[in-house]
Amino acid sequence: MMPDLTLSSAALLIFLICIGFVLIRGIVRLVIGVAVIAAAAWVAFQAWTIAPDLSIRLLDKPVDWITTGLPVAAFVVTFAVLRLIANFFTRPFGTPSGSRGPVKLIAVGLFTLIPTSLLWAIGVAVIHHFGSVAEIQAAFDAGKEKESTIAATARQWKDVIVSLLPEEWLMKLDPLTDPNRLSLAKLIATQQKDELKPAIDPATGEVIPRAIIVEEPELQNLAQEGRFDVLLRHPLFQKALDDPKVQRVLKERRTAH
User: Does residue 246 contact residue 240 with C-beta atoms inside 8 Å?
Assistant: First the structure.
């Protein structure tokens, strides 16, 4: 037999139900908002990956307004469209009204960790990537003028990230700069420099030309222009990385270090 429901008990039950609805509504709004950001970031990343190849197909060469502009446009358009759709159904980005009680504040604080974690992951990936690009630039500029402050800072921040996070995490966050790809990019950047110039055979005194590991003029031109970010995304870069000869050279370099 069910106990009698007193007025105070009913009021408490209604209060708890209202709190539940408020929390659920807030959680749903937050999850949808995070999903919108994540979806826009994913679309931008896909556009950023294929942008050099698309630029080559359209204009026969990578151009900045496509390799850089396309990912930015993809993020903005995707975010705007998904935000409009989300607003139409749930208004997840609307201005909250009413006061916030302690329960709601605690819930908001806890679930704020979700977008914070997403933004943290994006920030780590961006810093790691541009730190890697700065490493390639440093290898290319070896023996030249002093490294720029921005590049030096990017490399220092990358070193901090590498020291704190497992390599498996970094490869998932920034797959375009895994150790093999980074080593190959440095090799392409430096293969025309002093350490790869013809050497003298001590036995005969004759010049021994050193082998050019990657004979792709487009990749070499990108390296000479300092466009290492595009170099890492170029379709010919992956083709060179898959070459057994290149794989063997990279393995020898890893063993030597």
Answer: yes
- Is 48 a residue whose pLDDT tops 80? yes
CA gap 31, 115 in Å, rounded: 9
- 176: exposed, middle or buried (Cβ count in 10 Å: 0-12, 13-18, 19+): buried
CA separation for the pair 123, 23 (Å, rounded): 29
Identify residue 253 by its one-letter amino acid code: R
SS3 168: helix
Q: Please give the sequence-ordered ranges of beta strands (E in DSSP) within 74-121, or none if there are none.
A: none
pLDDT tens digits for range 109-132: 555 566 667 778 888 888 888 889
Angle between helices 7-59 and 69-89 (to 10 degrees): 150
Contact 198, 102 (CB under 8 A): no
Q: What is the CA radius of gyration of the chain?
A: 27
Rounded to whole angstroms, the maximal C-alpha distance in the chain is 107
Closest CA to 245 of 216, 207, 209, 224: 216
What are the backbone dihedrals phi and psi of residue 93, each rounded to the nearest 5 degrees, phi first?
-105, 10
Asked if residue 29 lies in contact with residue 212, where contact means CB atoms within 8 angstroms, the answer is no
